[in-house]
Amino acid sequence: MKPDRDAPIGVFDSGVGGLTVAREIMRNLPSEKIVYFGDTARVPYGGKSRENIIRYSRQIIHFLMEQQVKAIVIACNTASAFALEAVRDEFDVPILGVIEPGARVAAAETKNKRVGVIGTVGTVDSGIHASYLKKLDPEITVISKACPLFVPLVEEGWLHDPVTAEVTARYLQEFKDKDVDTLILGCTHYPLLVDIIAEILGPKVTLVSAGEESAYELKRLLKSGGLWAGPAGQGGTEFYVSDRPEDFERIASVFLQEDLRHTARRIDIDQY
Fold first, then answer.
1. CATH architecture entry for 9-97+212-271
2. Under 8 Å CB-to-CB from 235, ≥6 apart: which residues?
3. What pLDDT is recorded for position 119?
């Protein structure tokens, strides 16, 4: 049965990082309702096995399907890398990832064909960004680096802390040394650190986040499939987490610039 055009869009991530994608969906599709799930009990995904990430993703998608969503965005690079192909054909709604949109933007933006990628250990080890970039332009040189401390720092809310600045400087030195002119923020948590990253790398390096391009791709998909809510849609977002709703609300309130206290509901995701 075809989903209802007034049904919500499901968005999920390992924690708060997917809000960087949800925010772009809100901005570009303000009439659409969103159901957001942050898997805060199991964050970060970056060091988890492929099998576990696929299992987590299936559980979350089952939960989102119970909310009668019409489309799902996997707003997590690690889950996009490991689970997208495994789950895409298992459900009756379109499921989008965030890696390919970011790669397209980076390939178009780079001038010297030296593109950096930062991400979790899982995402970087998968080589998926490099694979997409090489398909788009075989002449691109890809320099990838895992930055496993970034997600815990973001989840703690240490977005402008001196410790975060020091860690970021150490992680990014390699890209300065290798004359990278475009950097893919290959984890949806990382745009929350964009001010520190931009300060360290300077204005000559283009920072690419997949959120905006993913929102555009979602809009195209909804319109072509007759699923766009249209200008008459009511909008609005529901938040669900697997643990620590108060911590999620605190960080989400800062990032989305609205009071989100008492808005996130904790669910037992293992029952799915």
1. 3-Layer(aba) Sandwich (3.40)
2. 26, 30, 31, 32, 33
3. 94
* Residue 103: partners with Cβ closer than 8 Å, 6 or more residues away: 129, 132, 133, 136, 184
Q: What is the pLDDT of residue 232?
A: 80
Residues 6+ apart with CB under 8 A from 189: 15, 16, 17, 20, 150, 151, 154, 155
For residue 119, the 8-state DSSP code is E
Q: Give φ, ψ of 151 to 5 degrees.
A: -65, -50
Active site members: 76, 187
pLDDT of res. 1: 61
Query: For the chain, percent helix, then strand, then coil, each to nearest 5?
Result: 45, 15, 40
**pTM, rounded to two decimals:** 0.90
Pull the structure tokens for residue 260: 């989100």
Contact yes or no for 98/210 (Cβ under 8 A)? yes
DSSP state string for 12-77: EESSSTTHHHHHHHHHH-TTS-EEEEE-TTS---TTS-HHHHHHHHHHHHHHHHHTT-SEEEE--H
Q: Of the candidates 226, 123, 237, which has an alpha carbon nearest to the alpha carbon of residue 184?
A: 123
List per-block mean pLDDT (blocks of 10 residues) for the chain, which spans 272 residues: 86 94 95 97 93 98 97 96 94 95 95 97 94 96 96 91 97 97 95 95 95 92 93 91 96 90 97 97
Q: Which residues pair with 266 in a beta bridge?
A: 241
Question: What is the rounded CA–CA span in Å between residue 198 and residue 206?
Answer: 9
Tokens describing residue 1: 């049965």
Domain ranges of the chain: 9-97+212-271, 99-209
